[in-house]
Design brief:
Elements (H helix, E strand, L loop, with lengths): L6 H15 L7 H12 L4 E4 L6 H11 E2 L2 E5 L6 H5 E6 L4 E6 L6 E5 L6 H4 L1 H8 L1 E4 L2 E4 L5 E6 L12 H4 L4 E4 L5 H10 L13 E2 H10 L7 H16 L3 E3 L3 H17 L7 H12 L4 E2 L9 H12 L7 H5 L1
Parallel strand pairs: 1-9, 1-10, 2-11, 3-6, 6-9
Antiparallel strand pairs: 4-5, 7-8, 12-13
Helix pairs in contact: 1-2, 1-3, 1-9, 2-11, 10-11, 11-12, 12-13
C-alpha cells in the first residue's frame, strides 16, 4: 500500500535529499537535480566523465541520503552475469538447491565503471532495469521497490572497456556529465575534505517508502496536449534529421515526459511548460540518438544537433497555467 503525496510534499522531499547531498558534493546542483529526476521518476542515471570528478562520491552520498538498501559492484571484465542477478546453487548439507541473490536485489545499485564489464554481463541488467525483475532458471523474481541503477563510466579511457550498446543506453532515463569544478569550487572542495570526509557524517533524510510514494504520485503533474505534441514533434525531427541514423524511440518520448514532470516539481510547479521540455531534452535524448559517421567527428555533436532541433520546432504558446486551472 502506498500513500498519495501532494506535489509540494514531493518537492520538499527532493529538496531535503538535494540539501543532504550538497553537504558532500560541491557546486554540482544541476547534476544532483538530474539524479533526483531519475530517482523520483523511477528511472536510472548514467554518470559519465573523467576519473576523479566525483561520480562515485555523488552516488554514495545519494545512497546514504535514502534509508534503503545499497550495493556497490565494481564492473570488471571477469564479472559474471550471475554476480549481478544471483544463482541457484546446490546446498549439499540440506540436499537441495538454494537461491543466492545477486547485487541487483537492492534499492540503489552503484554500477561502477559499467563499461569495463563484457557485453554478456552488461546484458544481465536489461531485464532488471526495464521490468524490475530477474528471471533465473525459468523463475521470475521481483526486485525491491524502489530500484535505481546509478552507473558510472570513463569516456576517455578505451583500453579494456566495452562500449554500452544502444539497447543498454536506452534503459537509462538520463545521462549526465560531472565536469570539472571552477576555481572557487575547487578551493571549497579542498577545505571541505581537508580534515574529514563529510560522507561519513551524513544521515538519511528519506525512506524507501517515501521514494515509492513519490514515484507513484509525480504523474499527477499536469501535461497539456500541446506539450505532448511538442514532445512528439521533437522526437520526429530526430528520426528524419540528415545527420542522425537512429532517432528517439517511443520509450525515449515517455522518458522525456516523466523527466519533465519531475523537473516541473523541482521548479515549484504542478504543470509542465515548454521550458521543462527544453531543459530535459539534452539529458534524456542525447544518448538515445546515433549520428552518421561523418557527424561524429566533432565533440558533443549530439547536443549541438539537439539544440538545432529545439530551435527549429515551434514552441507552444498557449497559457498552460490557464489550461491547468
Amino acid at each position: 500500500m502506498w500513500t498519495v503525496l501532494e506535489i509540494s510534499e514531493i518537492r520538499n522531499l527532493a529538496l531535503s535529499i538535494r540539501e543532504n547531498i550538497e553537504k558532500v558534493i560541491v557546486g554540482k546542483g544541476d547534476v544532483i537535480d538530474r539524479f533526483l529526476i531519475a530517482l523520483l521518476s523511477s528511472g536510472h542515471i548514467l554518470l559519465e566523465d573523467v576519473p576523479g570528478t566525483g561520480k562515485t562520491l555523488l552516488a554514495k552520498a545519494a545512497a546514504k541520503s535514502i534509508d534503503g538498501n545499497f550495493r556497490r559492484i565494481q564492473f570488471t571484465p571477469d564479472l559474471l552475469p550471475s554476480d549481478l542477478t544471483g544463482i541457484n546453487f546446490y546446498n549439499q548439507k540440506k540436499g537441495e538447491f538454494e537461491f543466492r541473490a545477486g547485487a541487483v536485489f537492492t534499492n540503489l545499485l552503484l554500477a561502477d565503471e559499467i563499461n569495463r564489464a563484457t557485453p554478456r554481463t552488461q546484458s544481465a541488467l536489461l531485464e532488471c532495469m526495464e521490468e524490475r525483475q530477474v528471471t533465473i532458471d525459468g523463475e521470475t523474481r521481483r526486485l525491491s521497490a524502489p530500484f535505481i541503477v546509478i552507473a558510472t563510466q570513463n569516456p576517455v579511457e578505451t583500453q579494456g572497456t566495452f562500449p554500452l550498446p544502444e539497447a543498454q543506453l536506452d534503459r537509462f532515463l538520463i545521462k549526465a556529465e560531472m565536469g570539472y569544478p571552477t576555481a572557487d569550487e575547487g578551493a571549497a572542495i579542498l577545505r571541505r575534505f581537508q580534515s574529514d570526509n563529510p560522507l561519513d557524517t551524513i544521515e538519511p533524510v528519506a525512506t524507501a517508502a517515501q521514494i515509492v510514494d513519490a514515484q507513484k504520485s509525480f504523474t499527477r503533474v499536469f501535461v497539456s496536449d500541446d506539450i505532448m505534441q511538442y514532445i512528439i514533434r521533437i522526437a520526429e525531427e530526430t528520426r528524419t534529421h540528415q545527420d542522425i541514423i537512429l532517432g528517439v524511440s517511443p520509450r525515449g518520448t515517455q522518458a522525456l515526459l516523466r523527466a519533465s514532470q519531475v523537473c516541473a516539481i523541482l521548479r515549484g510547479r504542478d504543470f509542465v511548460t515548454p521550458d521543462d521540455i527544453r531543459e530535459m531534452v539534452p539529458s534524456v535524448f542525447g544518448h538515445r540518438i546515433i549520428l552518421k559517421s561523418s557527424a561524429r567527428i566533432k565533440k558533443n555533436q549530439n547536443l549541438a544537433i539537439l539544440s538545432a532541433i529545439l530551435s527549429s520546432v515551434p514552441v507552444p504558446t498557449e497559457d498552460i497555467r490557464a489550461k491547468r486551472s
